[in-house]
Amino acid sequence: KIGRKMPLGNYEMTGSDDAIYTLGDLLETNGLIVVFSCNTCPFVVGSDSFDGWEGQYNDIYKKAQANNIGMVLVNSNAAKREGVDSKEEMAKHKEDLGYKMPYVIDKDAKLADALGAKTTPHVYMFNGGGKLVFKGSIDNSWDTKRENLETYLYDAITAIGSGKEITNDSTTPRGCSIKRAK
């Protein structure tokens, strides 16, 4: 829920670069953006009818950095860990797309479970004090019937960076289900 303290701040996750990361270490002065992502979901990588959100990740990261907010991509697809979402495939994906932020493995979807993450992508943003201030979708670009583009996450970053309240702090995530191991 919005206002909840960041769970598992010291939970160690291995990055596609073999480094160890925790949410607490990645939290910057004004906060941290956690994006549950993967290498194959059409909502992440795109399809014939939708560009996918991963093309925005580096721009989101730049905007976050400009506002003293950290960012991490988290892969919780434990059921696909031996295949398309292996650490090796994550490293290749990160390199191919030029990701600037860490891309980490959430072993057994422990962080996804703690946050209630359901989809790839599913975004959570914490303020500098580690409280949840935004959750949901990056924007509404997936909606072919939309009248206007609503840039939920970008608006939240701008608000936090300027010390203002986020006006739309909870949006419905869209994407593929996180593939948890059984």
Tell me about this structure:
The chain is an alpha+beta fold. The chain has helices at 23-26, 42-45, 57-66, 87-97, 110-115, 152-161; strands at residues 13-14, 20-21, 31-36, 69-75, 103-105, 119-120, 122-127, 132-136, 176-177. A hairpin with a 4-residue loop joins strand 7 (122-127) and strand 8.
List keywords for this structure.
182 residues; alpha+beta; 3-stranded antiparallel beta sheet; 6 helices; 9 strands; 25% helix; 19% strand; globular
Number of strands: 9
Any idea what the shape is?
globular
Q: SSE order in H/E notation?
A: EEHEHHEHEHEEEHE
State the helical fraction: 10-25%
Kindly report the average pLDDT value.
94
Low-confidence stretches: none
Tell me the distance between the termini.
26 Å
The gyration radius over C-alpha positions equals 15 Å
Helices, by number, come to 6
Largest sheet: 3 strands, antiparallel
Task: Look at the helices and sheets and give the structural class.
Answer: alpha+beta
Q: Beta-strand percentage?
A: 15-25%
**What strand order characterises the main sheet?**
3-7-8
